[in-house]
């Protein structure tokens, strides 16, 4: 009979309390399931426990910190909360188990943190403490008496939650177990970088309590499975994703993520990543960053920063203790792809993503859908004071909520329009029944894809009404349009104030168009992409002078803040210019504002990114000549740093003759760093790069290539220079070739497998170096190419390896060249042996103990299957003078000798002992193979026996047994060799040992055939031929198809004078194994003797 009550608890925290409740309920006649078994570390969740939970009518959860750290406990909790975890939000018909679950709260500690992990229906109840068994028992009995008699499983029968489906399979459920996160040796102070986070609404945040709990459950409670969780919050525009994430951070982050929070607005692009990464780097402690070239693309700068940043985070921050928020993950094609592209350590940090995309499920541990508000919640938002619910009948308010599809953003702007008088209540009430106007149809096209199709018309009309309300106040609609032209990222307070004025910013915020963001130190505003789309649609449909005024105002605002936050100013300027290009026209006010902006950008220190975008803008607007003149005047002072930055700006003006002429001058500048920058940014004048590079190389000594290190770290800088470098190596003189080869080695060492620039991949560059190392006319340059080949880390290349092999084979007649090329093979193979990371696991048992296991040492990638056979062939079949070099290459790596061992044994089994003996001779002749020599001697002994040369095998077998006395097979082979070689004295010496080993083997495993073989040999060596014959007969009885037993008995029978019987056994042995030389020799002797 199934128990009525199930107790879910963590043994190390609430064992006594669970036992007390069990006893109290049992005394009252209630059947209780209490599992008290020890839980093995990493154990699967037993189907029997799941069945007991589903069969119970009431479950008691002993909630506490330890409870939510145990995978079994969290699994039981997930089963109980299946109805609340439905995605999207559960319908009214979803099963509610609030009357079937009783919670026992901890008696001490942070109770609020525990309550936060309960669904709202359970969190709202005042539960007894875990040590109050009487109160808990009374609650349980009341739930049993008031229930409908159905079990928990019956009430959840209609659900297809994955946890339930796996449970219903009837099998034990394997669960991931999170190892305890080790405390960093030098933990960093908490880091809070939330400048771009929307300001949380607190009590004004409506209708998302269940979703917030689901976020807590997946991001915090489920860390029992994996310490660093990746959770995605997915929904369409205007659904409140960012606000929900901000509310989660405000309410729960300080408890759940003691390492801090980093909020990245992905709408700002890779620049936001670089800025956040640099700030986080500084916050982790005083350690300088590696140089990040200012002129590199933001994506490349992030690539250079992310790996060292991840290493610092892993060293300074406990796993999962820091939350990394990626807000507004871009659409595919609009930015980088998955979670790993936007977070430096997605397996070490907790990650929360908000996105409209639905294709990031594969990157996440959990994906939650944020849908529209239900009618009741939408009503609460729309009619929040000072709006009065009595202004309209309840059904009319509900019709409005349904009309806009429950879109929180649309309800917010409608409420603001009601409050400021721009929208009459009666007008709002009539809209759901009206026919869509032509303007509404146009707005619907602007919003298509931004909001759900079912809410498209309502959202378009809602924003259209709100826009009309703005137009009723002079200048406010124009101010909103100006801000809509900027990039869709948080606007630092100075920018909107400079562009449209502080009063307009305040009025737009009050009307819901601008949303506040930032933290205690920084104030920002965001204009959501949905209303921004509406505003830009108005610009395209409105008069030209209004659009010109908005663009000019935006440029003027950017000019005012050009010296601050360069990355974002560049982003905004790029967005404004894209809008301008799409319009295809501009008035005088726009050109005047653009000139002021260019003056502001280039008359003060600003970043290269902003200068590049400003130069592009100048080119688009036909102001390139004016810009070049201004730059000439500003840089007449000859400042080195300023001049080095010029090529990056000038490349943005490829159609401006004055800019290209200046770039050509810089290619001939006397300063090497200026010339390098000019070459890196000179595609428009690429023909001039080659002579400039040749001159630069001629001024560099072989030992002075460190000058180039800073440039070689950034592949983007090499897009023009690398082809010129390689061309110089092909056509330049020997000194230039040596330097180019050394630089290529630095490139491979710096970028490894990921290198790609100038049309070359890492593999292609290695093939190029290999070609120069093999065919270079100059020995020094070829040596430099060979050294460069070994400098980088790149995968095995199916094109390079055959070329190398062919080069070695082609040098068969030239020992010195062949040895040199074998050295090149060694360098090539070493450069492909990328070390695999150590895999160390720290696991926790049920009582809190810790066990460490895994791979503690780095192991290199294995050689591909094609390598070792080639190396063996060069040893076995190569010219004598190069054999030692080939053998040294083979044994330089453990894998080479291991694979050679497999080859050797296969060759012996096939009867090809001579090749194996040549290989072993060459390897042992090296004299420095260490303990591995024993294995090689064993091959050689087996090969000698296979070749019918037992005398040669004996010394090797003795050496093997000296190193490994317990090697039974070698002992038997030695005895066999002694017998065959006719060394009676040695045979007798080994007889006792062989017999002792055979008896020991038989004691360990009575039915072991090998033990009987050894005893047969031992008896024979000691002259006990009757004992040998008896042991050999036992071998035959066990393995009648094995010639060894028949041969051993034939030897014993022969020694006892029973020649006819011996002849028959010898013939049978030969029939079973006609290629065995021992059997053939004995059979021939017996046949010949008659």
Automatic annotation (TrEMBL):
GO terms for biological process: signal transduction. Residues 5-81 form the TIR domain. InterPro entries: P-loop_NTPase (IPR027417), TIR_dom (IPR000157), Toll_tir_struct_dom_sf (IPR035897), TPR-like_helical_dom_sf (IPR011990), TPR_rpt (IPR019734). This is TIR domain-containing protein. Transmembrane segments: none annotated. Gene3D superfamilies: P-loop containing nucleotide triphosphate hydrolases, Tetratricopeptide repeat domain, Toll/interleukin-1 receptor homology (TIR) domain. It comes from Rubrivivax albus.
């Amino acid at each position: 009979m199934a128990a009525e009550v199930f107790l879910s608890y963590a043994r190390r925290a609430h064992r006594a309390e669970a036992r007390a409740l069990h006893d109290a309920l049992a005394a009252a006649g209630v059947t209780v399931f209490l599992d008290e078994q020890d839980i093995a570390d990493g154990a699967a969740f037993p189907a029997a426990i799941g069945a007991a939970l589903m069969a119970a009518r009431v479950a008691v959860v002993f909630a506490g910190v330890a409870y939510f750290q145990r995978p079994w406990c969290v699994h039981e909790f997930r089963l109980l909360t299946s109805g609340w975890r439905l995605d999207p939000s559960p319908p009214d018909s979803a099963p509610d188990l609030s009357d079937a679950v009783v919670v026992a709260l901890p008696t001490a500690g942070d109770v609020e943190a525990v309550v936060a992990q309960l669904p709202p229906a359970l969190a709202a109840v005042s539960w007894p403490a875990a040590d109050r068994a009487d109160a808990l028992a009374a609650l349980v009995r009341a739930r049993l008496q008031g229930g409908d008699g159905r079990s928990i499983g019956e009430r959840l029968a209609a659900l297809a939650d994955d946890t339930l489906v796996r449970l219903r399979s009837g099998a034990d459920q394997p669960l991931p177990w999170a190892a305890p996160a080790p405390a960093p040796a030098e933990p960093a102070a908490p880091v809070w970088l939330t400048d771009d986070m929307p300001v949380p609404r607190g009590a004004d945040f409506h209708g998302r309590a269940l979703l917030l709990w689901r976020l807590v459950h997946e991001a915090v409670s489920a860390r029992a499975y994996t310490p660093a969780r990746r959770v995605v919050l997915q929904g369409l525009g205007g659904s409140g994703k960012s606000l929900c994430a901000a509310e989660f951070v405000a309410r729960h982050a300080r408890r759940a993520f003691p390492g801090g929070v980093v909020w990245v607005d992905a709408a700002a692009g890779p620049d936001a990543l670089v800025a956040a990464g640099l700030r986080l780097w500084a916050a982790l402690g005083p350690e300088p960053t590696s140089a990040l070239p200012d002129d590199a693309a933001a994506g490349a700068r992030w690539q250079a920063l992310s790996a060292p940043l991840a290493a610092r985070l892993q060293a300074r921050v406990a796993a999962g203790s820091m939350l990394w928020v990626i807000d507004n993950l871009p659409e595919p094609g609009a930015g980088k792809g998955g979670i790993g592209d936007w977070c430096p350590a997605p397996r070490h940090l907790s990650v929360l993503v908000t996105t409209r995309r639905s294709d990031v499920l594969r990157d996440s541990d959990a994906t939650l859908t944020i849908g529209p508000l239900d009618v009741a919640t939408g009503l609460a938002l729309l009619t929040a004071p000072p709006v009065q619910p009595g202004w309209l009948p309840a059904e009319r308010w509900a019709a409005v909520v349904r009309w806009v599809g429950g879109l929180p953003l649309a309800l917010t702007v409608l409420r603001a329009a009601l409050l400021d008088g721009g929208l009459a209540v009666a007008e709002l009430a009539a809209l759901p029944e009206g026919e869509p106007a032509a303007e509404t149809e146009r707005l619907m096209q602007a919003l298509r894809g931004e909001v759900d199709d079912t809410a498209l018309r309502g959202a378009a009309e809602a924003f259209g009404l709100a826009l009309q309300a703005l137009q009723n106040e002079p200048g406010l609609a124009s101010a909103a349009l100006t801000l809509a032209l900027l990039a869709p990222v948080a606007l630092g307070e100075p920018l909107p104030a400079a562009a449209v004025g502080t009063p307009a910013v305040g009025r737009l915020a009050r009307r819901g168009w601008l949303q506040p963001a930032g933290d205690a130190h920084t104030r920002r505003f965001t204009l959501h992409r949905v209303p921004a789309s509406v505003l830009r649609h108005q610009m395209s449909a409105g008069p030209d002078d209004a659009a010109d005024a908005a663009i000019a105002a935006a440029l003027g605002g950017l000019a005012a803040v050009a010296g601050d936050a360069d990355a974002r100013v560049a982003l905004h300027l790029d967005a404004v210019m894209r809008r301008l290009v799409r319009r295809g026209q501009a008035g005088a006010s726009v050109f005047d504002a653009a000139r002021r902006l260019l003056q502001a950008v280039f008359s003060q220190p600003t970043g290269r990114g902003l200068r590049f975008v400003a130069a592009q803008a100048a080119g688009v607007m036909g102001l390139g000549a004016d810009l070049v003149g201004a730059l000439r005047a500003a840089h007449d002072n000859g400042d080195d740093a300023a001049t080095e930055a010029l090529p990056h700006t000038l490349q943005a003006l490829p159609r401006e003759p004055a800019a290209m002429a200046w770039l050509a001058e810089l290619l001939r500048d006397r300063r090497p760093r200026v010339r390098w920058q000019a070459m890196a940014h000179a595609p428009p004048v690429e023909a001039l790069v080659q002579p400039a590079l040749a001159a630069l190389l001629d001024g560099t000594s072989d030992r002075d290539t460190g000058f180039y290190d800073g440039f070689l770290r950034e592949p983007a800088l090499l897009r023009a220079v690398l082809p010129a470098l390689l061309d110089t190596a092909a056509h330049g003189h020997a000194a230039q070739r040596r330097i180019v080869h050394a630089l290529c080695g630095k490139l491979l060492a710096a970028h490894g497998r990921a290198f790609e620039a100038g049309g070359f991949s890492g593999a292609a560059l290695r093939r190029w170096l290999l070609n120069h190392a093999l065919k270079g006319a100059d020995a020094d340059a070829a040596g430099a190419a060979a050294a460069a080949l070994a400098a980088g880390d790149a995968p095995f290349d199916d094109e390079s390896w055959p070329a190398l092999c062919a080069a070695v084979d082609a040098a068969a007649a030239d020992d010195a060249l062949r040895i040199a090329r074998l050295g090149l093979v060694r360098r090539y193979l070493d450069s492909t042996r990328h070390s695999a990371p150590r895999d160390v696991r720290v696991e926790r048992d049920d009582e809190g103990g810790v066990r460490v296991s895994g791979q503690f040492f780095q192991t290199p990638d294995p050689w591909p299957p094609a390598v070792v056979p080639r190396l063996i062939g060069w040893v076995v079949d190569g010219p004598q003078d190069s054999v030692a070099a080939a053998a040294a290459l083979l044994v330089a790596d453990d894998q080479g000798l291991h694979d050679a061992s497999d080859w050797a044994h296969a060759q012996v089994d096939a009867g090809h002992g001579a090749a194996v003996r040549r290989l072993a001779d060459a390897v042992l002749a090296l004299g420095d193979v260490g303990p591995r020599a024993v294995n090689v001697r064993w091959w050689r002994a087996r090969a000698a026996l296979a070749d019918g040369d037992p005398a040669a095998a004996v010394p090797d077998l003795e050496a093997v047994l000296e190193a490994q006395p317990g090697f039974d097979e070698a002992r038997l082979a030695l005895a066999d060799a002694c017998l065959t070689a006719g060394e009676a004295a040695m045979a007798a010496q080994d007889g006792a040992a062989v017999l002792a080993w055979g008896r020991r083997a038989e004691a360990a495993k009575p039915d072991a055939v090998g033990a009987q073989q050894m005893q047969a040999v031992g008896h024979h060596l000691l002259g006990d031929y009757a004992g040998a014959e008896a042991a050999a007969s036992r071998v035959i009885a066990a393995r009648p198809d094995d010639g060894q037993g028949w041969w051993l008995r034939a030897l014993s029978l022969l020694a006892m004078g029973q020649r006819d019987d011996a002849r028959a056994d010898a013939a049978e042995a030969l029939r079973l194994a006609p290629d065995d030389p021992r059997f053939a020799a004995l059979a021939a002797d017996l046949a010949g003797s008659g």
